[in-house]
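Archive entry. Fields below.
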Amino acid sequence: MNQAINQYLHENKENHLKELFEFLAIPSISALPDYSGEVKRAADWTADALRRIGMENVEVYPTKGHPVVYGEWLKAEGKPTVMIYGHYDVQPVDPLELWETPPFEANIRDEKIFARGASDDKGQTFMHIKAIEAILQTTGTLPVNFKFCIEGEEEIGSPNLPAFVEENKELLASDVIVISDTSLLDKGKPAICYGLRGLCGIQIDVKGAVSDLHSGLYGGAVQNPIHALVVIVNSFHNEDGVITVEGFYDDVEAITEDEKKAFAALPTTDEQLLEQLGLKELHGEQGFTTLERLYVRPTLEVNGIYGGFQGEGIKTVIPKEASAKITCRLVPNQNPDVIADLLQKHVQERVPAGVEVNVSLFDKGHPYVTPFNHPAIQAAGRAYEKVYNVPTAYTRGGGSIPIVAAFDQILGLPVVLMGFGLPTENFHAPNEHFHIENFDKGMETLCYYWFELEKSL
Amino acid sequence: MNQAINQYLHENKENHLKELFEFLAIPSISALPDYSGEVKRAADWTADALRRIGMENVEVYPTKGHPVVYGEWLKAEGKPTVMIYGHYDVQPVDPLELWETPPFEANIRDEKIFARGASDDKGQTFMHIKAIEAILQTTGTLPVNFKFCIEGEEEIGSPNLPAFVEENKELLASDVIVISDTSLLDKGKPAICYGLRGLCGIQIDVKGAVSDLHSGLYGGAVQNPIHALVVIVNSFHNEDGVITVEGFYDDVEAITEDEKKAFAALPTTDEQLLEQLGLKELHGEQGFTTLERLYVRPTLEVNGIYGGFQGEGIKTVIPKEASAKITCRLVPNQNPDVIADLLQKHVQERVPAGVEVNVSLFDKGHPYVTPFNHPAIQAAGRAYEKVYNVPTAYTRGGGSIPIVAAFDQILGLPVVLMGFGLPTENFHAPNEHFHIENFDKGMETLCYYWFELEKSL
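PREDICTED_STRUCTURE:
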């Protein structure tokens, strides 16, 4: 890679920050209808930024919600095509009083950019734009082809993006998708998350008598919906933390020895986690380490339970109903539809006497994994290592980024999650910020990556 | 009994109703501080009513809360002394818009008196006053001695009455306590409830991490407080509905063959209960009938459970805490203090890994029973039978009336619960009412009772 590219980035840093601050000044809060004009303004700003660096066929595509910004540069004939996904929308800013400086007036303190969206995801999307500008300005061309797909609804669950992708398969056809919307493992420790868990959820509603009953007048003679719910909920795990739903683990891919080694080599320790969470001990499926439990094992968690009296003191009632909300995190090759069926069957086979039980389904998401020895992943790892001078960690994520699974499902492409945030940067919270060190190193890393990718794919 | 007494009641019915309506017009809502002047006015009204019929040493005794009205008539030398307990306070009236006529403007429709307090308990307390007036006016004397103890805090749990009773043991010394604050079994079917269950409750608070956690990022690696709570709650019963807390049944009195027969003879059927509650099947401790489960077996019911997300849809959270509220109904000779200890021990021995569990105690109440072959109970049964012309049912109550247990504990006296309401009369609800048939027959029954009691005790 040309040394001149780094120099270009260095010399233009002030201008780049100034331009980024303009982007950060637009309150593009996708969740709040009052801000839809601002969201549109951020889309237009993004499109202009793409046009300014030389992207072609730049367009703001309307959807049923907020628009998708598209732009491309396809002049690297015979070379791979990279689709860069990002988002120009941001989270709400409440509670505003906890911000040390206004969320939409970006502000540098202590070598960090403070603003809503600084890290998630305007900052990281902007880095992609400026890294490509640096290569183009310095070398006059690019080592690979690019397609930008920058949406405005990520913070509200990307309700319209899957349909947009489905309808524009040809427009978006590429060899690899690169997303910078995640974090390094820790300061100075690059990481590539190459797998995310899927999601599948149910709500269990247990109904008893027509109304709440006096526990003195009826207690002992009727089934208490809370007791019935507890019997059902308690049946999902055994004492070893193993999920006891029949067939639940049937399609789970076994963890490979390579992955076991890679996870064991990660610097994250149980002690760190205990301290961070204020716990005395961890708990999970027997026979697996904490990271294995988080990365490659499926889970079943009750996210909410409720029934009867919740106020101060006591009310001697047998409630007429009780409910629980449950979600499973799924791993390859579990199918959310199959798991949803197994969960429903499990519950229906365990309905206690004297109550009626209804099970309803929530949205589902497929698990995603790009094999960590995929050339696009390995090239990204080498790019990180050139800039950060330490080995890249290969992790999997416990959470779900539905759009990643959607890209995987619809386009069938490898996805590289190459993030530059830090876990401590208050995404979604007051005083969101982004470390300038990673703004600089990140753009350098991206530039290296495109040249590595040219050689790898 | 003198026929003239009945005639007196008949001839004065209009006046009695008019007087009762005056009593019912006072909004003596003990729960609402704004009404404390009205509560006091009801106390004074009660005291005046006692004076008017010839009670002596009538006094309105102040307490830390609302006052207690006392009055006595002790001229039946060598005869037993009856303490009549009742209350002049009433429940709040919300929601007011559901009342067909204003709650404090008593109104007769369909041979029922509609007003807050009509049945619970101004109407029934007033019947005692007028029954005694009838005997005194007709015969010039009374067959037994009387002490009235009419309080103003029953609807808020009688917080100050136990102390008043404790401090006035001599003043209140009697041979039997008679309370009319319950119901007939059904229209035309008199019943005496000779036992009530006690109460003992705990709250279980399970605490996990310092904050709610993202179920994707941490799910599988930490104990979920809801899971831990469910494990504990599920441990209280076995599949046969038997409570599995060690020692829980140790002091429970065995049911006698006489009682078994008496309960089996009651007209209440499981089918009625199923229809009333909108249930397809009942559920309870194996080996006992429904009435045995309600009257003489202890229970453990979860009255409330809560933790995590309760809104529409889904939130993938592992909550930092979850709680359950539990109460036990106790039967003779279970001691609420002993049971509370057993419950705490049961929970502490079952704390799952990775969480902290706190158990706190609620107010406790002793169970109460007056043997159903006690002469005061049997005399009451005969009095009912003379007026209602059907056999009296001997029942026990599943609920707890704390003041009954307190009288039992402090004064060591038999308590006769001789009610004239009907289970359908909307106590504590809009459109509370009282059947005039039972107003008439009830006073007649009481008059018979006092003459029966003279012969029995």
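CURATOR_NOTE: Chain A has a mean pLDDT of 94.
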